[in-house]
Amino acid sequence: MNEELEERLYREGITLADIKKRAVAFFIDEMLLSMLLIFALWDSFASVQTTEEVIALTNSFVFEYMLMKIVYQAFFVMQYGATLGKMALKIRVIEIATLANPNVLVSLNRAIFRVISEMFFYLGFLWGMLNPSRQAWHDVTAKTLVVNA
Predict the structure, then answer these.
(1) 55-69 b/e with 16+ CB inside 10 Å = b?
(2) C-alpha–C-alpha distance, residues 93 and 98, integer Å
(3) In a 10 Å sphere around its CB, with 0-12 CB exposed, 13-18 middle and 19+ buried, how is residue 44 labelled?
(4) Could you tell me what percentage of the chain is helix, strand and coil, using 3-state DSSP and rounding each to the nearest 5?
(5) pTM of the shown model
(6) CA gap 21, 2 in Å, rounded
(7) Mind giving me the DSSP string for 82-104?
(8) Which residues contact 21 (CB under 8 A, 6 or more apart)?
């Protein structure tokens, strides 16, 4: 992180969210979305008999699930600066330029690249753990930071 940004964050009393909080928020969001998918497809899930059928059914809705994740992430980050998981952990997403909630395009960019990062074995998240400013790929492309609320 450059010194100018560090100084701006310090002046505003903003601190970066730690990796543990982000991981727990991620887990909460994933569980919520998974439960929503199961609820939406309950009739289909109730009719399957074997583990292989569950896997096949789940795989048949991968595109819809990814789209649901993008809409969820983009909407909540744009509207509230945080997803439900982030709200529970008292962290939020801010744009580096404005130190405010991301606008619709930034939120959408962040959500899309978040899903892309997941598709590449979560390498973008690993990048965020090793990055001094704790920016995962989706934060780098959207020019955002996750901070304590």
Answers:
(1) eeebeeeeeebeeeb
(2) 11
(3) middle
(4) 70, 5, 25
(5) 0.92
(6) 23
(7) S-HHHHHTTEEEEETTTSS---H
(8) 89, 90, 91, 148
Per-residue pLDDT for 28 more than 90? yes
Q: Tell me, what DSSP letter sits at residue 144?
A: E
Sort 100 into a burial class: Cβ within 10 Å, 0-12 / 13-18 / 19+: exposed
Q: Tell me the C-alpha distance between 99 and 104, whole Å.
A: 15
Integer Cα distance of 13 and 22 in angstroms: 19
Residues present in the chain in total: 149
Cα–Cα distance measured from residue 90 to residue 92, given in angstroms and rounded to the nearest whole number: 7
**pLDDT tens digits, 102-139:** 999 999 999 999 999 999 999 999 999 999 999 999 99
What are phi and psi for residue 61, nearest 5 degrees?
A: -115, 25
**Nearest-angstrom CA–CA distance, 73 and 114:** 9
Domain boundaries, the chain: 3-148
Ramachandran assignment for 143, one of left (phi > 0), alpha (psi -120 to 50 degrees), beta (any other): left
